[in-house]
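Severity: low
Component: inverse-folding endpoint
Summary: output formatting inconsistent between runs
Steps to reproduce: submit the following structure tokens with default settings.
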């Protein structure tokens, strides 16, 4: 097994390697809160601590200790790409209302979509300033791992596909997609569509993978095999979605009868590209989505999708965090939320 290094401790604690060096060598300039966190992470990793740390019990700083009640707590919503969609802003707005009604304070903590090697978490997350966090729209595996190690109550909404639920140190809410997308694909077959494709990056999010599994379950029952030519499931760049889908559709020798899209956003990109190609939607190629995002009014009359009640979702997230704050020792929960399919 690889011997842990100061860099490993720095990544686990969300601090710089220099800060770890200062603490382990008893140099001044690091707060007690951060020092305790670094020592705790070092011990968990099995790093050989100096004698002064191994001979004395390191007590958690009161600022990092979990409250028995969420009253007067400061809650942080940790978000990446917060302005990407009304979908996300509606969820955050509902969280803010619930936090205010509960007499708590809300803090927004913005994090990058991808983090560099020497990334350090924003100080409020490591200083004991917040008593709980909700992680939204964060899809960087390394960043999720760092956030997961924070010794405060936390709730995740979704995660990257390769995030191991066995390591989960907070509750996770997932939008159920397997059964709903399986039903949507069944519906396409029932409406006479025989060649059905799938578009969506299944490496990006656990929920995306679940939706693809629903699609494949239906295809397997209705057809002899899944045609790989009609499936674009690999990694798609956040900034290059339009270009990559354009190239994919343009490269097809023949279009399928329908595409099951991993989200309304993807369905809208596909819709615009098909229209530019002179393809009639939904007459020639039908499309389905997921989320029921109000942004895309040009598809509202034909797009079959899954309606996500963002107000209810925001409430569920913050109430789950309040529960976790008040019940820190109960088992970690992975919760699947089922939603209504809107057929067209």
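Observed output (run 2 of 3):
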């Amino acid at each position: 097994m690889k011997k842990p290094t100061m860099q490993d401790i720095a990544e686990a604690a969300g601090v710089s390697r220099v800060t770890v060096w200062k603490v382990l060598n008893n140099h001044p300039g690091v707060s007690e809160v951060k020092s305790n966190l670094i020592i705790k992470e070092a011990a968990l990793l099995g790093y050989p601590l100096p004698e002064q740390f191994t001979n004395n019990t390191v007590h958690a700083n009161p600022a990092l200790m979990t409250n028995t009640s969420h009253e007067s707590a400061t809650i942080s919503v940790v978000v990446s790409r917060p302005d990407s969609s009304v979908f996300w802003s509606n969820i955050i707005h509902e969280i803010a209302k619930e936090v205010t009604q509960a007499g708590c304070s809300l803090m927004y903590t913005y994090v990058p979509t991808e983090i560099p090697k020497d990334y350090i978490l924003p100080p409020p997350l490591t200083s004991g300033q917040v008593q709980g966090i909700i992680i939204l729209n964060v899809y960087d595996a390394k960043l999720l791992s760092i956030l997961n190690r924070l010794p405060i109550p936390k709730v995740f909404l979704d995660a990257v596909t390769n995030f191991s639920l066995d390591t989960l140190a907070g509750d996770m809410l997932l939008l159920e997609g397997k059964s709903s997308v399986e039903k949507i694909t069944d519906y396409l077959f029932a409406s006479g569509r025989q060649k059905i494709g799938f578009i969506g990056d299944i490496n990006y999010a656990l929920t995306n993978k679940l939706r693809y599994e629903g699609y494949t379950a239906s295809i397997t029952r209705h057809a002899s095999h899944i045609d790989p030519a009609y499936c674009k499931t690999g990694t798609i760049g956040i900034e290059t979605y339009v270009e990559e889908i354009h190239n994919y559709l343009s490269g097809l020798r023949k279009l399928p009868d329908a595409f099951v899209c991993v989200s309304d956003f993807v369905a809208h990109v596909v819709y615009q590209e098909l229209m530019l190609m002179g393809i009639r939607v939904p007459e020639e190629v039908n499309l389905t989505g997921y989320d029921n995002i109000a942004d895309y009014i040009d598809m509202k009359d034909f797009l079959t999708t899954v309606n996500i009640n963002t107000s209810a979702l925001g409430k569920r997230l913050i109430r789950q965090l309040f529960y976790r704050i008040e019940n820190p020792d109960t088992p970690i929960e992975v919760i699947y939320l089922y939603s209504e399919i809107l057929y067209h």
